[in-house]
Write a structure and sequence with these properties.
By secondary structure, the protein is an alpha/beta fold. 34% of the residues lie in helices and 24% in strands. The chain has a single domain (7-239), classed as Rossmann fold (3-Layer(aba) Sandwich), CATH 3.40.50.
Length: 249
């Protein structure tokens, strides 16, 4: 990672009414990294991604992309700045074909020719061969794993500097989870920075350079994957291990 982070979160606070979903959160993501945010339900992981992509308004703190503040920018402007968000639940349009869903990801890029878009969709099918034969199928006909691949392809069509992924393994069979995370590793290899939210700690850390652990909106642990796995609290919380201490409570 370079000395200057690509994405910097400083003292981020997000509230839903009286509830503080994220409180004083600070972390960085370097160019070319995969960084994983871990934590149980309600830890503030998804809210953090929504704040970065402009879907919720922070109550305090700073969000910087390459040193440029993102606060106050509309979600579509944040996409144009280089951040694509693949939300939890896939959110594929059921009445559009797979090809049409993928093309929608390029809506932030004005002036791209139809031929160029067709070529880029074919490149997405090369990256996601399991959905190539469903190019003309409607979204509602696909399985959960296929929908996740369509959602990932759509996010990549924005040509983001940073791809935000929210729970890509949610509801998927183990064999499909393996395939999805192999694609995430390939996306990183091709140069796209990834900020990943994941409850499956083993998979989330398997592709990560660094990880941050959130609990009730606060950062409680951070480090490289090996160091996090060596922590008793992580094993107890995510693997049912023994010998956990109370330091992360």
């Amino acid at each position: 990672m370079s000395d200057k982070p690509l994405l910097e979160i400083r003292d981020l606070t997000v509230r839903y009414g009286e509830i503080e979903a994220v409180r004083g959160l600070t972390f960085t993501v370097g160019a070319g990294e995969v960084v994983t945010l871990l934590g149980s339900n309600g830890a503030g992981k998804s809210t953090t991604l929504k704040a970065i992509s402009g879907l919720v308004k922070p109550a305090g703190g700073t969000i910087l992309l390459d040193g440029r503040p993102l606060q106050g920018m509309k979600p579509e402007a944040i996409v144009r700045a280089g951040i694509a968000h693949v939300p939890e639940g896939r959110r594929v349009f059921p009445g559009l074909t797979v090809r049409e869903n993928i093309i929608l990801g390029a809506s932030n890029r004005s002036g791209t020719s139809k031929r160029a878009l067709r070529d880029e969709v074919e490149a997405m099918f090369d990256l996601f061969p399991d959905i190539r034969r469903f190019g003309d199928a409607l979204g509602w006909t696909l399985s959960g794993g296929q929908l996740q691949m369509v959602a990932l392809a759509r996010g990549l069509m924005a040509k983001p500097r940073i791809l935000l992924l929210d729970e890509p393994s949610l509801g998927l069979a183990p064999v499909i989870v393996q395939a999805v995370f192999a694609i995430i590793a390939e996306v990183r290899r091709r140069g796209t920075t990834v900020l990943l939210v994941e409850q499956n700690a083993r998979m989330g850390l398997s592709v990560a350079d660094r990880g941050y652990v959130l609990e009730t909106g606060r950062l409680v642990l951070e480090g490289e994957p090996k160091a996090l796995w060596a922590n008793d609290d992580i094993r107890a919380a995510y693997l049912g291990g023994r010998g956990a201490s109370a330091s992360a409570a």
